[in-house]
Write a structure and sequence with these properties.
about 220 residues; Rossmann fold; two-stranded antiparallel ribbon; 10 strands; alpha/beta; binds NADP nicotinamide-adenine-dinucleotide phosphate
C-alpha cells in the first residue's frame, strides 16, 4: 500500500515510517518538500536497505496515496484536512489526533464542537473519504524502536468495515499490537480521551512509554 504520513517528519510519523517502511511504500509529508525528503532519507538510513520511504510536500503526498495518516498536532488538523481538501481522492484517512491541553497539573481532553478530532476531520474532508480513528494510545518513541515488542491494544473507531479492517491489519503488522474495534466514528471521543488519561497515569507513576491493553480475567478453577 502507498501510505502518506501527513506531517510525517514528527514523532509519530517517524514511528509509523519505521514500522511500515518495509512492507509498504511510505511518503513522508511536510509543509516543506525539502524537510520531507531529508526526513525520508534519515528514516531510510535507520531502516536499512529494505526501507521504502520517500518525501514530498503534504499535498503531493496525499494525492498519490492509498491511505493517509494525519500525523499533526490537533492545532493543525484544519490545515491538513480542509486546507488540503483538493488533494484527497476517496482514500482511507486514519486519524491518531488527540485534542488535549495541559492545565499545569494534568492533561485534559479538549474536544472540538464536532465532538472529537476524528469527527472534525470527517466534517472537513470530502464525503467520499473514509475516516478511521486509531493509534491514539500508541507511544511514538516505542514505535520508532523497531525491535521493541509493544504489548498494547489499538482502539479503532469508524463507519466503514473495510477501512477499519485495513487499519486493523496495519496495526497487526506492528509487533505485537492488537487491534480492537471500539465503535463507530462518533465514539472516537472516548478513545481520544484515553490519551490524556494515559499520560497522566504514566507521569504520576513514572511509567515510560506507556500503553493500554484490555485484559480478560479467566475464572479460577478450584
Ligand atoms: N507522539 C506520540 O506519542 C503520539 C501518540 C499517539 C497519537 N499522537 C498524535 O499524533 C499527532 C502527531 O503527534 P507528534 O507527536 O508526531 O507531533 P509533532 O512531532 O509535534 O508534529 C508533527 C508534525 O506536525 C507538523 N506541523 C507543525 N506545525 C504545523 C503547522 N503549523 N501546520 C501544519 N503542520 C505542522 C510538522 O511537520 P512539518 O514541519 O514537516 O510540516 C511536525 O513534524 C498528534 O495529533 C498527536 O496527538 C501522538
Amino acid at each position: 500500500m502507498k501510505i502518506a504520513l501527513v506531517g510525517g517528519t514528527g514523532d509519530i510519523g517517524m514511528g509509523f515510517a519505521m514500522r511500515w517502511g518495509q512492507n509498504h511504500e511510505i511518503i513522508i509529508g511536510s509543509r516543506s518538500e525539502q524537510k520531507a525528503k531529508e526526513s525520508a532519507t534519515a528514516f531510510k538510513e535507520q531502516l536499512g536497505a529494505a526501507g521504502n520511504i520517500q518525501g514530498n510536500d503534504n499535498a503531493s503526498a496525499i494525492a498519490s496515496a492509498d491511505a493517509v495518516v494525519l500525523c499533526v498536532p490537533y492545532e493543525h488538523l484544519a490545515y491538513v484536512t480542509s486546507g488540503l481538501r483538493g488533494s484527497y481522492n476517496s482514500q482511507l484517512v486514519i486519524s491518531p489526533v488527540v485534542p488535549m491541553t495541559y492545565n499545569g497539573k494534568f492533561f485534559q481532553y479538549q474536544p472540538p464542537p464536532d465532538g472529537s478530532a476524528a469527527m472534525q476531520a470527517r466534517s472537513l474532508l470530502p464525503p467520499d473519504v473514509k475516516v478511521v480513528s486509531a493509534f491514539h494510545t500508541i507511544c511514538a518513541a516505542a514505535l520508532q524502536d523497531i525491535n521493541r515488542i509493544m504489548k498494547a491494544d489499538v482502539f479503532i473507531c469508524g463507519d466503514d468495515a473495510q477501512s477499519m479492517e485495513i487499519t486493523a491489519q496495519l496495526a497487526r503488522e506492528i509487533k505485537s499490537l492488537r487491534p480492537l474495534i471500539a465503535g463507530p466514528l462518533t465514539a472516537s471521543s472516548l478513545t481520544e480521551s484515553l490519551t490524556p488519561f494515559l499520560l497522566n497515569v504514566a507521569r504520576k507513576n513514572k511509567i515510560k512509554d506507556a500503553g493500554i491493553a484490555v485484559v480478560s480475567e479467566r475464572p479460577t478453577i478450584k
